Write the structure tokens for this entry.
Amino acid sequence: MQDILSRLGLDVSKGPVSGVYAGRWIASPSGEVTDSVNPTTGKVLGRITAGGRDDYEACVTAAEEAFLRWRALPAPKRGEYVRRCGDALRAKKADLGALVTLEMGKIRAEGEGEVQEMIDIADFAVGLSRQLYGKTMHSERPGHRMYEQWHPLGPIGIISAFNFPVAVWSWNAFIAAVCGDTMIWKPSHDTPLCALAVQRIVNEVMEPDGFGGVFNTIVAPPDPVGEAMLADKRLPLISATGSTRMGRRVGEVVGRRLGRALLELGGNNALLVMDDADLDLALSAVLFGAVGTAGQRCTTTRRVLLHHSIADAFTERLVKAYAQVRVGDPLAAGTLMGPLINPRALAAMNDAVAAVKAHGGKILCGGTTEAPAGLEGGFWVQPTIAQVPSDFPLLKEETFAPLLYLVKVDDLDHAIALQNDVPQGLSSAVFTTRLQSAERFLSCAGSDCGIANVNIGTSGAEIGGAFGGEKETGGGREAGSDSWKAYMRRQTCTINFTNDLPLAQGISFG
Ligand code: UN1
């Protein structure tokens, strides 16, 4: 473990490491010393000195100063820096992936997958750096040219969650960087070492050319630093990933100052299995979607809506498959599910299981908290399936844990209605071999989510598409497609190359 940390430049053996990079490492930040805890063992991985209000000011100053030089660099040159960041990540993929596993608790394959997601978005951003296209319009006035162009926004704030401690930063950071923005990252207090490792990796590329201040990081509690970011008019955009409760606060405070908030919040994702579905496919998709990352993805499958004619047989197979899931040390080969992130997550899962029972739901498997042998200090639950009726009140809530609800439905219309009848709107999937059902699910009267899949599970989206969702998921879009537009300001330009001054709408004035 020490090897992994030291290869990532994190020497935690001599005492707390600095949690603040403001164009340079701040030697003694003014915040409190916090622990990074390994959720597998409950033991401290390393200690970090958090940043205070003054350290935050240093970050803003560094980001503002770097912005003036960074925005002046042609976008394809900025892309070249991001390309080299992607290469630096390729070289550290195994170590950074292992650190994600150590600090967050997802299994090794998923930890490395997360780093791959960073590499993929870096590649995407490099291409994008030559494609930040604006449109040209035909002016209604003779001898006039009209077009739009996109300019960088400025220093932006990125607030990320524990469950994707590195990838979600990169979705924002690499796109924002090619757009010409600089940034301040406030990572989750549960995964500070992952953030500090990433900062060190990009520093290798940025610092030698004096561009350290493009990417800045401050490990700090929500108050006062997080709150200062939200209220800070110097940050035109705050991109925040986390709970709906957190996002509501971000939206309110940023909205009050008429700043921009890009929100990627909770999900309550349903997977519909129709009578004509390929049940083998559906089974694998449910397993990865509900058990993967111990149910701690915002895209996790939380509800499976089963056509009544296949419901019993499918349920039986799913319960059998759950019995095969090896829960244990996420670093060990063969493990499919690691621990939850912290004791609060454990308590939330236990409360939800108790509530399911109290409301008459049937726990088909799991629902207990026994720890694997030798790992009693960690935060363990068993993957859990609850069978509930379609009007079960808890179906509308997101429990960020491996708690899956199975519900029987009459037909596709019933399933779509139920799927949409929750406050969240992130991801959704239908399993069917009937073209008509697939297209109905994707039509405007079908799924109301930001992501709608056919014969693919709810989680594990590729970076090339826009990622995000509707309703209480917050409406933001990150990663691929034209999500880059959120990180730039649009300017409409009209140029008159005549000696007349015709007015639009044919107005004659004087
Ligand atoms: C998240 O859980 O916040 O689609 C992000 C997925 C991943 C990203 C999840 N690519 O499941």
